[in-house]
Amino acid sequence: MVLAEPFPAQIGQGSFGRSAQGDYQRLSFTGSGKEYFGIWIVNILLTIVTLGIYSAWAKVRRNRYFYGNTVLLGRGFEYHARGGQILIGRLIVFAYLVVYNILLTFVPLAGIALLLLLLCFVPWLVARGLRFSARVTSYRNVRFDFVGRAGGAFLAFIVGPVIAALTLGILAPLASRWTYRYIGNNLRYGQKAFSTDPSIGTIYKSWAISAAIIILGLLIVGFFAFLNFAVFVTAIESPDLIPAEMQVSIVVLVVLGYFLFFAIFGVAALVYRAGVRNVAWSAATFDGKHRLLSDLSRLRYTWIAISNVVVTLVTLGLMRPWAAVRMARYVNEQTGVRFDGNVGEIFSAIAQEGSAVGSEFMDIEGFDFGF
């Protein structure tokens, strides 16, 4: 039986005792960009020196740092995967790709058949990856677990995205709901289950904001393109009539137009992601009575994500650790749990029940196919 570490003596009262109505215990992130930079730069250098082999161990070091600094009720989470497990999974994927490319070159029909076979196995790989990630994660010495099957992964990660793409995003909320239901309803902590049933109507409200951003953005880009339509036509049909300086300006405008086009969809996607996360997490419960919360500000989340990318690019990647810590801190601070009852008694009961998955899983089944 897996036992959690005991709570402090004062756990039965005060901020760690019985949660008042509406009192959410917030997560926090205690790491710093400076501290993570040391881990990040070593990971980069060793990955380069070992021609990518060390990247498996780099992932373990990175996850252990971020999990360990994600704190709830004064205690961090733990990540138990080993680099060898991740490396084995990656070698299997690499070997498959090598065989696939060889067959595609010399026996095209066999290569196509192998690709179709891979697509059939994608749901199984997704389910296995989620299970691995859950089972190598623990909180207070109690492991998480994931019990989802390949059929559910097929609906959530294959059918959903295809339907969303074919309908130009109109049914994206339905796909998002399938994904969050699949993950949330199959997640376990010890013997206790999580569950979520986000309202499709509420998700569509978030979708409507993103759709409005896309429509408005495309109208603005289209308006300026219309104003310069005659110039563009002349540049295409009779480029010799356009002065060299104006040709440069036209090229700049075209590049800027493409950038704005993708930026519009990027901003809309970030706004949608934050909104859907709020809906799905806030509809989730743990053990049927403890409620989860996410209250990300769409505007601030989008600003942090975009400014992180800009700062990372301007500094040639050197500020990537700072950006990662900045986002982790914000997301954690906007995430919480409202416990129904005495927190100490809740976790003591979970610890006494033990985990559905023991540490022996790590030795007999622990391969990660994710990158």
UniProtKB/TrEMBL annotation:
InterPro entries: DUF898. Keywords: Membrane, Transmembrane, Transmembrane helix. The chain crosses the membrane at residues 37-58, 79-100, 106-126, 146-172, 207-236, 248-272, 301-319. Coiled coil: none annotated. This is Transmembrane protein. It comes from Sinorhizobium fredii (strain NBRC 101917 / NGR234).
